[in-house]
User: Which sequence fits this backbone?
């Protein structure tokens, strides 16, 4: 049990109700993440954590394990997913005699990743220099150039005012969008800390076209367009 992949998919979704089982390209959204995890040889088990019987049934149909149901208190809108991570790891500790060497979290909302993205994250983690590996893509906005905040007097200003005038975004310090493509973590870190950036974090770059995070109907429609375009190109 060196590496275990988890897909955390609760039943409630206000932005797009039922999104985890909504059909994308002819199969449920969650099936994409399950199949991508199963395609990575280093992953020994693929486990779905959910509070939904419907999601659990779909997950099993597509090859994932659903050995437990997530408690309702860990599946609310305001429930920190970090606690769901701990709940899943506690299950492994209790039933498998210990924790895996690495845990992978693959949100169902990032269906356009490819297995190689997961492999790249595992490669980075196995270098031994991080408690957590995240994925990033090129940012569309920069806090040094075109991201603003409201000041106390009602005016707006840059989130991070630069020390010298910056007239082009390309001249601002490089910044990245954190994506939901994949997370790889040391289980001991998850059990003893409370947030991603409480430890040493490394990043793997993912092209923006594979980094869509589906939260709304518009996000879903964009994913459909990207998927259809990719199929036509193929």
Assistant:
């Amino acid at each position: 049990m060196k590496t275990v992949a988890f897909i955390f998919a609760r039943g409630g979704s206000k932005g797009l109700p039922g999104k985890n089982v909504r059909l994308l390209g002819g199969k449920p959204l969650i099936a994409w993440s399950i199949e991508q995890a199963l395609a990575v040889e280093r992953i020994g088990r693929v486990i779905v954590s959910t509070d939904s019987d419907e999601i659990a049934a779909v997950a099993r149909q597509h090859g994932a394990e659903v050995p437990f149901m997530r408690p309702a208190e860990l599946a609310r809108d305001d429930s920190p997913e970090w606690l769901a991570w701990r709940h899943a790891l506690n299950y492994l500790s209790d039933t498998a005699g210990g924790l895996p060497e690495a845990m992978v979290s693959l949100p169902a909302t990032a269906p356009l990743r490819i297995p190689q993205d997961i492999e790249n994250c595992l490669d980075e983690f196995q270098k031994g220099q991080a408690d957590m590996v995240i994925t990033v893509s090129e940012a569309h906005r920069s806090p040094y150039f075109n991201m603003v905040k409201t000041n106390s007097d009602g005016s707006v200003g840059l989130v991070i005012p630069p020390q010298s005038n910056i007239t082009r975004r390309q001249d601002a310090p490089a910044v990245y969008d954190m994506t939901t493509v994949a997370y790889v973590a040391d289980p001991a870190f998850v059990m003893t800390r409370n947030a991603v950036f409480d430890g040493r974090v490394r990043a793997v770059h993912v092209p923006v076209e594979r980094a869509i995070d589906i939260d709304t109907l518009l996000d879903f429609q964009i994913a459909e367009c990207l998927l259809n375009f990719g199929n036509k190109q193929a």
Summary: The first helix runs from residue 29 to 38. The two ends are 36 Å apart (CA to CA). The longest strand covers residues 132-138.
